[in-house]
Amino acid sequence: MALQWLSLVGIIWLQAISATNSNFPAYSSQLKLLLSLSQLQLNNLAFASDAGKLFGFFSGMAAIYLPLWLVLLIGSLLGFIGYGVQYLFLVTNNISYLPYSLVFLLTVLAGNSICWINTVCYVIAIQNFPLNRQLAVGLSTSYQGLSAKIYLDVVDVVFNSPSRIDSDGGGAKSYLLSNSILPLVNKCDESSIDVEGTNGGVDIEQAVKDEGVLVNDGEEMGVKVMMKKLNFWLYFFVYMFGATIGMVYLNNLGQIAESRGGSNTSSLVSLTSSFGFFGRLFPCLLDYHLSRAKYKVSRPALIALMMVPMTTAFFLLLNSSNICLYISTATIGICTGAITSISVSTTAELFGTKSFGVNHNVVVTNIPIGSLLFGKMAALLYREQGLTSGNGKCMGVKCYQTNNLTMEQSPIRARKEIRN
Fold this sequence. Notes:
MFS_trans_sf, Nodulin-like domain-containing protein, transmembrane
């Protein structure tokens, strides 16, 4: 029992620093200037970070055949290379030229590293807490919502002069450095924690049987069978029009704040990070209390419920008030976090736990697809508004007005899919 709780502490630490792409809005404007990028190119980099999830199934396969400490090490090294090379290019003369295509590929590599760390955390949580997996997964992943805030605080402490951070792209450089180093350092820290059943591959189903309890919410199926099911595609698109929409908004948060005349992007990132934490924590606490009262909540219904305030939040963004911006950002953060947390248990419930590592990484491929579609739409609309202003830079609520209206309709469509 003590080893189980020790493993939970370990994965909480891992999740707390794993979401290295969550601080992208805090330095995206500076990166745009440093690399002389257009808005479309910047949005493509945001997509590239999500595109790493397209290859997330490799981490799921690795978790089946390799020790989890090795899977974790691979993920940390991928992030170290992806962010580290970009950092070296910006601060040293060792790399004189870095083409945009290579920056894109490095960002994909860094984004993929998150999948490896998340897979390890999910597998350990489901394996060690079969009866309370929603609580264990929700509790650990909720700290992933704090990643952006943690990185903001690290940068503020290391570069304690605000002028140093804001000038010469210091913020972008310091975020890239912390993104490359912290996960690797934390991996070395966690290597001393030996989690039972994770030294030489993982069989979740066997681990559950060893605990004396067989949790069989849904039919056990592999990825090929899963992708032939109607439930998979309904779930896939509901996720895309729900949590993924929220992630696309958060990726564009820096540009949205700038277009509305604000310079406090860091405070907005901290706000969404904090509310994302509570959003991820809410479903697991609700599930725990209801289970003690002998009730069970429908996870698809809970996802549909979270989309109601998200729709309202996008509608509020049509108002130019800064108060509406903060309220909307907090609401989108909490709803996105909640849906992300619920989805982990939903995947296991619908498609079983035996191939969970691969199955869930296939489900989250909707994130890069949605990021590409909605992110490119936002960039093209921004560019169109910028061209009408004459200087290519758009200012005001109008920059993202059409985009916000489209995103407002997306959760409504997803709720209809759930009802049908």
